[in-house]
């Protein structure tokens, strides 16, 4: 019951703080859908209060150590592709479940990650092509968005999807280190 109330409260807060454009008003929140259908919806991993995936300004992060330390043990580690709910750029409470590449640790409970997409971004300096992998059951090519950094709570991760091989990870790490001046861990 408290999960339903939390979902409804989150939806109401989003409605009160979101942009009032007609396009956004027409979008239904999960809480609105739950109210209309009578369904109880549990928050998606990465969306629960205190465990939500948060967008972080990479230009304000000075002490990130980009490392490679995958350990397929159920915990998110640098070098692993994990799935979590990721907020959209608009910051209006909407988002989607997607793969992210863990690049370093923020705290015992949180890791830094960059989002991944299967949408082609050839020639875009903010996206690095990394090919396909076990994180995508359709075996589509993927790109890493080196402009968008996220803080992912360890309990906000839905699942481990794959370990990115060291060669591809090092290409991503080099792009991030060159762009932001972070250290290699």
Describe this structure in words.
The strands form 2 sheets. Strands 1, 3, 4, 5, 6, 7 and 8 form a 7-stranded antiparallel β-sheet that branches. Strands 2-9 form a two-stranded parallel ribbon. It is of the alpha+beta class. It has 4 helices and 9 strands, in the order αααββββββββαβ. The protein folds into 2 domains: 1-43, no CATH class; 44-184, SH3 type barrels, CATH 2.30.30.110.
Summarize it.
This protein has 185 residues and is of the alpha+beta class. It has helices spanning 2-17, 22-26, 30-37, 166-180, and strands at residues 54-56, 65-66, 80-87, 95-105, 110-117, 127-131, 142-153, 157-163, 183-184. It folds into 2 domains: 1-43, no CATH class; 44-184, SH3 type barrels (Roll).
Characteristics:
185 residues, alpha+beta, 2 domains, 7-stranded antiparallel beta sheet, two-stranded parallel ribbon, 4 helices, globular
How helix-rich are the residues, as a percent range?
10-25%
Could you give the count of β-strands? Answer: 9
* CATH topology heading of the largest domain: SH3 type barrels
The ordered H/E elements are: HHHEEEEEEEEHE
How many angstroms separate the termini?
43 Å
Overall residue-averaged pLDDT value:
78
- The CATH class of the largest domain: Mainly Beta
How many structural domains can be distinguished in the coordinates?
2
